[in-house]
Design goal:
This protein is of the alpha/beta class and about 230 residues long. The protein is built from eight helices and ten strands.
Length: about 230
């Protein structure tokens, strides 16, 4: 591996940028490929670049046969992130589940009585207003946001930031009546019907879940369904 390639790869990983290292098996040529459509390289062919970008979208490392020859694509991606709004009982069940699924979990709640290390061991807890925290954390296409507080003062500002982001999943807990009122408030704030349709509300697949643990399972199931199948439930 050339020093320039290694330096670029290490810099991208340090900055938590998703990249793929593309190696042409026959020639040994290598290139660093980013998810952007306009990525370009003279070291590998256009087909190899396209396959590398596909591999990045699918988090898939492996060997691919292309018109340019056999290519080994090694994908380096940061963990997906889950921002949980509200340090409530369901969050206590959801956080470890998401961690087991490979997510970097952050619980956000300004209420210090709820947002404690004792309630959320081994989880990053931020005691800030959700909108301020999300603006600083910048949800991207590898981020899910779930609002659990049932409190419009906390949920609505958080959802407003999430809807302006590229988050792949946005969920909000509550009944259908609560969801309708939530959508109405956000519509008054200027969000279009198309944008508001991104909110999964009530959050979670319809499993008949009752307990905090069961509800957390339903949310993780829906989140995974959206991630892997692109389904809007």
């Amino acid at each position: 591996m050339k020093y320039a390639i290694l330096t670029e790869l290490l810099a991208a990983r340090s900055a938590k940028k998703p990249v793929a290292l593309v190696t042409m098996i026959e020639s040994g040529n290598q290139a660093i490929v980013y998810p952007s459509e306009d990525a370009a390289s003279t070291a590998v062919g256009a087909r190899a670049l396209s396959e590398a970008q596909r591999a990045l979208r699918e988090d898939r490392t492996g060997i691919v046969e292309t018109e340019d020859g056999t290519v080994f694509i090694h994908v380096f991606v940061p963990p997906r992130r889950l921002f949980i709004i509200g340090a409530v009982h369901i969050a206590q069940a959801l956080a470890p589940m998401a961690g087991l699924a490979g997510y970097e979990v952050t619980v956000i709640d300004p209420r210090r009585a709820f947002a404690t290390d004792k309630r959320f061991p081994f989880v990053n807890v931020i005691k800030e207003w959700p909108d301020r925290a999300l603006e600083r954390l910048v949800p991207d296409s590898r981020t899910a946001v779930v609002a659990l507080t049932h409190d419009p003062k906390l949920d609505q500002p958080a959802l407003s930031v999430a809807l302006k982001s590229k988050a792949f999943y946005i969920g909000a807990l509550g009944s259908k009546k609560t969801q309708a009122a939530r959508v109405a408030r956000l519509a008054k704030a200027g969000f279009t019907d198309e944008t508001l349709s991104r909110i999964h509300g009530p959050a979670g697949l319809s499993l008949g879940a009752k307990t905090p643990g069961e509800i957390a399972i339903s949310i993780m199931a829906q989140l995974t369904q959206v991630l892997r199948q692109g389904i809007k439930s």
